Amino acid sequence: MLTSKVAKRYAQGLLDFTNESGQTATVFSEMKDVVKIMKESADLNKFFMTPYIDSKKKVEVANEIFKGLSASSQNLITLVIKHGRENQLKNIAQEFINKVEDINGVQRVTLTTATQLSKENIEQILKTSNLVNLKNNFDLQVNVKPEILGGYILRVGDQQIDASVKSKLNQVKKDFSLN
């Protein structure tokens, strides 16, 4: 997923600040909570996206929702809202998480399948792939997308293995159209 320049800049600023103040681990876990809350609450996203609600009201609501977070995290959320970037809050939090994981050497792995797989099947796919270094830490995200019909798509960083039935059918279709 492409991340906006805005999200990258805010996340980098937050990372620089937390590194200097020694709060990176705390803010890292809090940003995971922010991402989770923003993903789960469609109403909160609609509220933040509503242009006719002024920023003061949005800050009040955000302070109430995120009152358990540290001052650094709350200040970031307030700053983002006051600058009219509340639509980027989830992206900023996710980009911060990504930056901290990159520093810690965590590999981001996405496995997309047509149906839910057992743990054993997922482990087998990861073992047979040369993209995933099982000795290192990795963050696995499993997506189920029936539209790929079967097989899997494994993405590690910027590399991808597409072993889906849909892509193979598309390749066959393309081969037939060329002949």
Overall 3D shape: globular
β-strand number? 4
The assigned structural class equals alpha+beta
Helical run tally? 8
Low-confidence stretches: none
Q: Which band does the percent of strand residues land in?
A: 5-15%
Task: Describe the model.
This protein has 179 residues and is α+β, with helices and mostly antiparallel strands. It contains eight helices and four strands; from the N terminus they run H-H-H-H-H-H-E-H-E-E-E-H. It has helices at residues 5-21, 24-40, 42-49, 55-65, 71-82, 89-103, 119-128, 165-178; strands at 107-113, 138-144, 151-156, 159-164. A four-stranded mixed sheet has the order 2-1-3-4. It is globular and about 60 Å long. The relative contact order is 0.12.
Topology of this protein?
Layout: H1 5-21, H2 24-40, H3 42-49, H4 55-65, H5 71-82, H6 89-103, E1 107-113, H7 119-128, E2 138-144, E3 151-156, E4 159-164, H8 165-178
Parallel strand pairs: 1-2
Antiparallel strand pairs: 1-3, 3-4
Helix pairs in contact: 1-6, 2-6, 4-5
Descriptive key words:
179 residues; alpha+beta; four-stranded mixed sheet; 4 strands
Short description:
With 179 residues, the protein is α+β, with helices and mostly antiparallel strands. It contains 8 helices and 4 strands; from the N terminus they run H-H-H-H-H-H-E-H-E-E-E-H. Helix 1 packs across helix 6 (89-103), helix 2 crosses helix 6 and helix 4 (55-65) packs antiparallel against helix 5 (71-82).
